[in-house]
Structure formats: C-alpha cells, structure tokens
Automatic annotation (TrEMBL):
Keyword hit for Metal-binding: no
Domain Enoyl reductase (ER), first and last residues per copy: 11-330
Lineage: Eukaryota, Fungi, Dikarya, Ascomycota, Pezizomycotina
Alphabetized GO MF terms: NADPH binding; oxidoreductase activity, acting on NAD(P)H
Name this protein carries in UniProt: Putative quinone oxidoreductase
InterPro entries assigned to the protein according to its UniProt record, in alphabetical order: ADH-like_C (IPR013149), ADH-like_N (IPR013154), ER (IPR020843), GroES-like_sf (IPR011032), NAD(P)-bd_dom_sf (IPR036291), Quinone_OxRdtase_PIG3 (IPR014189)
Keyword Metal-binding: no
Keywords of the record: NADP, Oxidoreductase
Length: 334
C-alpha cells in the first residue's frame, strides 16, 4: 500500500511524501482492516513528525502518523464480535497509522458511520470528540448549571468541547481564540462569550461575566502562559483540566497557595497512551453523548479545509501556522 512517509525519519512539513510499497496491515485477532477514505490532522502529528513527542508513545503507534480516520471495512479478523462486515462504512480512533491507504485497528475503537455524515466530516470527529468528552465528563466531572472556560475554542478539541459542555447542561460557556473569525465560530457552536486573547484578558472577562464568582471548570490546551490567569479566575473548588501545553509546560513563579486558597483541583489527562479498554469505554460514552447529535446536525464538526493527501505538506504548514478555524482533513484519493 501507500502511506505518508517522513524523509530521514523526521523533519519539517516538506519532509512528508507519499511512500510506495509499505506493507499492508493485517486483520489479526479482534482487529479490523479499513481502507481509508479520509484522515484528520492533529497538532500531535507535528510533534511526531519532528520527533519531539513529549512522552514515549506505545509500540502500536508505529511510525506512520495519524490517529483518526474514516473508510470502508476491507477485512475482519478472527474473534471479532462487533458485527462489522466487509464493505461497511466506518470511522474510528487509532494509536497511529491513519496517514495511509489502509489501517488495522481494534474493533473496540471503531464505529459505524451514520449515513448523514461524509467520510471527510467523520474523519475529523474521533480524536477531537473523544478528547473533549474525556476532559469534560470523565475527568472534569461537569455538573448541570456549572460554568466552563474552554481555551483554544476554535481548535478541533475546543469546538467539540463547546458542544459537549452545552449538551451537558453548562450554564455559561466562555472560550478563548486568537482571531475575531475564530471567536465567531466559537459562538456559532454554542459559546456564550468568546474572548479574542490578543485584544482582551480572558481572566478579566470571566470576572465580569460571572460577577466575580469565578468559573467552575477550565479546559486548558494552552498551559504555561495561561496558568496564573486560570487560577486567578477559577471559582472556589474549581477543576482545571490540562489537556495540552501548547505554550510550554514550565510555569515561572508557581505558588501552591494559589491552589490552596481556593481548594482547586488540577487534573491532567492524555488519550493516546491509554489502553484499548479505556478507549473503548470512551467510545461508548461518545455514542451516548454525541453520535446521534452529530448524525442529526445538532452537533457538528467545522471543517477548515479538505486537502488531497498528496497536499499533506501544505496541510501541515497551515496547521503549524495556526490559521485554521476548524479541522483540517485529507482525502486518500490516489
């Protein structure tokens, strides 16, 4: 098969190329081989491409990039019990390997594709929605009528988090984003307030909007540069869920008193290194919380651009520039 390779094993976006004669994956016990129609791009792909991943990946991640995809079932391995058949339209989550014509994945992280969703839309769902549901429900424990602050609201995870929080009964949702266009997208998706962080201090906006009471749940993908303002605008006994650290992970002037004075909970979570049983549980929660809403249009994925996978370098450059307002997806079209 063909797959996206990286010249010399690591490099910039121009090091990406379509590689021929890559070994086909196998449908071993409990696994399904999918002929990929589309795959989603995520910022973790940049770190892996550059060989700068912040923690060791599991062996099953492999060398091929990509963790979310859609396509057609090509083969079903022995001992599979989920009922998938050759030719079924599916989408799902993987530890790696989605930048390719074919992938072998556990049946436990695969889902049937609703007729109302296209391959390109579905390819942008799994990583973002699974991560958002994990952060808001499994880790953050959102309760009805609580207030939520979501950073990087126009990112794939941020978009999903806004909609998951709204569906979960949040009383007020405040987001941050870097352009007026991205802020408008956040409001379209259900945010009550969207703060352009280049023009306003989000902590002051939270104080104003919540009348000095602070926010109950903070979903943070930014990290270091937001830490002090996060603790400043958090409510008593608020939860801060760290999903990523795009601005860095070392916090200067860290003072434990900021946590003690408000009895704050700080929780950190990752998804890619969770075992398959945890990811299966998360898949089931996704079905419960979001799948029907996505199939009927009550929830959605905003696609920024859809590329041919032959334009993978261009797609990575757009992602690195952080100008996309929505998901970037590639079609496996050759």
């Amino acid at each position: 098969m063909k797959a996206v390779g990286i010249r010399n094993g690591k490099g910039n976006a121009d090091a990406l190329f379509i590689e021929d004669n890559v070994p086909d994956p196998v449908a071993s016990s409990g696994r399904v081989v999918v002929a990929i129609k589309a795959f989603g791009l995520n910022r973790m792909d940049i770190m892996q491409r550059e060989d700068k991943y912040p923690y060791p990946l599991l062996p099953e991640s492999g060398k091929i990039l990509g963790v979310e995809f859609s396509g057609l079932v090509e083969d079903v391995g022995p001992d599979c019990v989920s009922g998938f058949k050759i030719g079924d339209k599916v989408f799902g989550l993987a530890y790696g390997g989605a930048y390719a014509q074919k992938i072998s994945v556990s049946e436990k992280t695969l889902l049937p594709l609703p007729e109302t969703l296209s391959f390109e839309t579905a390819a942008g769902i799994p990583e973002t929605y699974f991560t958002a549901i994990q952060a808001i429900h499994l880790v953050g424990g959102l309760q009805p009528r609580e207030t939520v602050l979501i950073h990087a609201g126009a990112s794939g995870v941020g978009q999903a988090a806004i909609q998951v929080a709204r569906q979960g009964g949040a009383r007020k949702i405040i987001t941050t984003a870097g352009t007026d266009e991205k802020c408008a997208l956040c409001r379209e998706l259900g945010a009550d307030v969207a703060v352009n962080y280049r023009n306003e201090d989000f902590a002051k906006v939270v104080e104003r909007e919540l009348e000095g009471k602070g926010v109950n749940l903070i979903i943070d993908l930014v990290g270091q540069s937001y830490w002090h303002r996060n603790t400043a605008c958090a409510a008593m006994e608020a939860r801060i869920v760290l999903v990523a650290a795009m601005s860095g992970s070392m916090v200067e002037g860290f003072n434990l008193r900021a946590l003690l004075n408000k009895r704050l909970w700080v929780l950190a979570t990752t998804l890619r290194t969770r075992d398959v049983e945890y990811q299966a549980k998360l898949r089931d929660r996704f079905v419960e919380v979001a799948l029907e809403h996505l199939s009927t249009g009550r929830m959605r994925v905003a696609l920024d651009r859809v590329y041919s996978w032959t334009q993978i370098a261009e797609a990575h450059k757009r992602m690195e520039a952080n100008v996309n307002a929505g998901k970037l997806v590639c079609l496996v079209d050759s």
